[in-house]
Every structure is written in C-alpha cells, then in structure tokens.
Amino acid sequence: MAVYTNVSADEIASFIAEYDIGDVISFKGIAEGVENSNFLLSTTKDKYILTLYEKRVNPKDLPFFLGLMDHLAHKGINCATPIADRNGNNLKELCGRPTALISFLNGLSISRPNVQNCAQLGMALAQMHLAVSDFTLMRKNDLSIEGWKRLVTSCEMRADECSVGLGNIIHREMATLQENWPGNLPTGIIHADLFPDNVFFLNGKLSGLIDYYFACSDMLAYDIAICINSWCFNADYSLNIAKASALVNGYNEKRQLSAAELNALPLLCRGAALRFMLTRLYDWLNRVEGALVKTKDPLEYLSMLKYHQNIKTVAEYGVIV
C-alpha cells in the first residue's frame, strides 16, 4: 500500500474539524500512487481525498499544483479540486507533512484502454491545455533534458545490472536527444504524467483527470508523446496505430496541432520513453528493502524506446500532417 505516513483516527478527526465538510464516517489508505500518502475520507456530507505530501514532493511546488487544479476547475475541467478550510487555507499540515484535502472524483481508471478511450483522452488533454493558457504560475520541468542528464549520470555506470548493454543504449540515446531536442514548439502547462491510472471513466465516458503533481511548463506536444507511450502500446510493445491515431485526432478536434508539432512527435516519443525508463531505472537501482511500493520495470520503456527509434515519419503513428 502506498501509505508512508500513518494517521490515527483522532488526528483525522481533529484535522477535519477545521473544515465545513461534516463529520468523519470512515477513512482508509489508498494503494494507488507512489509519491504521497493518500486516504479516502468519507464524511456525513461527501467523499474526499486526503493527501499527505511526502519527501519526494518539494513543498515550494505545492501552491503551483493546488492553484493549477483550482484554476482548471473554475475553467470547467472536471478534475479533483482543493478544498479550503474555514479560514480559506487549502494547504495545511498533518503529522509533520504538508497536507491538502481534495474533492473526490467519481469514476474508475481502466487498465486496458480501447480506441474510443484514447480519442476521449486526446480531447480532454487538448481542453486542459487550452484551459491553462491564462494560468499565471509557472514551474520548470525538472524531468526534461537537464533532468535526464542528471539521471544518466546517476544510472549509466550501473545500468547493465538491469540489462546487459543498457548503459551504452542510454548514453547514445541521450546524445541523440540532446542534439535534436526541439526548442521552438508551442509551450504551456502540461500534465506530464497522464497514465491510465490518472484518468477516470464513468459509464464509458471520460469523467476527469487526477494527479497533477508532475505538472510543469513544457512543450504541449510532449504531453501527447507521454500519452502515446502509456496508452497506445500492445502487450508485445508494438504500437497500436489505431489508438495512437485516435488519440491525436481527438486532440486535434479541440486544439489543432501544427505541422511542426506533428513532425516532432517521433522524437518527443523517444524522449518520453527515455524519461520514464530513467526514472524507473533509478528506482530499480536504489531499491529500499521492505519498501511499500513495488518497483516498476524499466525495460518496458526500453522496448518502447526501441520502437520509436525505428520510426521515420509521424505517418507511422497513423497521423497525417
């Protein structure tokens, strides 16, 4: 279970007494998520998510994250929203951790998205990008090129412990991306972690997006590349072209991608694959005995990276420029 800080019933009751959300009926830890301690809280008024932000989250970033969610909610984007206490505070402290109470979003994530799910995701992602065009706060993407270089330095010498030859693959790919990474595409606030478990569906329709704790300023098309990797590959790590095409076409219905953005997608997909392979590899190499969260396999993203390396044009994703 992904709960790093245990909270007693008395501590919960005392914390919730500062809000106008009724009395606590029940609370339980949520297994999903790897960064923070999350609890599902039921009161006499509604359901909520109580999040204690753990050490991997920089407290200085929390006003950006919470402000972004509040901004999106006011723009009509269906997402989890911070709840303020009676004094107007939406960021507090519990058990020595920065803590926020977040509205509960109805729906379930799906482990095997279909083509229609991907089309709906594309539309929702474009709507999010448009909704944050006037959001005034900024946050640097710490997991772009410079962040990858730091991860490469940390992992490269031991990478072959995970797979023979992986160190050389990482070194060559990093050099290629650093030389060719685009710098003139449209930018804005991106989600940067829109995996299937961060998207909810209800009665076959997308009901909302959650977990904005990697959100940052970067190229908008990079968000699409992350989604292609996490939503559009088959079990054998071949690309499901129908899903990729549906995702991009869905996005284009709400925000038209430029020719430059489309043509950059193969390179952006390579970068996204390397990014998640490196963070998984770092965690794999630095496993903690008895850790509560299962370490994810970095080689899944190595397979995706190799696929993207063989792509010549964006048409191979089922996309027409």
Oligomeric composition of the shown chains: single chain
Number of helices: 9
Helix content: 25-40%
Give the mean pLDDT: 93
The fourth-level CATH homologous superfamily of the largest domain is: Aminoglycoside phosphotransferase (APH), C-terminal lobe
Q: What shape does the CA trace take?
A: globular
Strand content: 5-15%
Order of helices and strands: HEEEHEEEHHHEEEEHHHH
Identify low-pLDDT runs.
none
Calculate the terminal CA-CA distance, rounded to whole Å.
44 Å
Which structural class do the helices and strands define? alpha+beta
- In total, the number of strands is 10
Query: What CATH first level of the largest domain would be assigned?
Result: Alpha Beta
What CATH architecture of the largest domain would you give? Alpha-Beta Complex
> At the third CATH level, what is the topology name of the largest domain?
Aminoglycoside 3'-phosphotransferase, Chain: A, domain 2
Notes on the structure:
The chain is α+β, with helices and mostly antiparallel strands. The chain folds into two domains: about 100 residues, Phosphorylase Kinase, domain 1; about 200 residues, Aminoglycoside phosphotransferase (APH), C-terminal lobe (Aminoglycoside 3'-phosphotransferase, Chain: A, domain 2, Alpha-Beta Complex), CATH 3.90.1200. Helices cover about 40% and strands about 15% of the residues. The chain contains nine helices and ten strands. Strands 1, 2, 3, 4, 5 and 6 form a six-stranded antiparallel sheet that branches. It has a two-stranded antiparallel sheet with strand order 7-10. Strands 8-9 form a two-stranded antiparallel ribbon. Strand 8 and strand 9 form a beta hairpin. Helix 4 runs parallel beside helix 8, helix 5 packs antiparallel against helix 8 and helix 6 packs antiparallel against helix 7. The termini are far apart. The relative contact order is 0.13. The mean pLDDT is about 95.
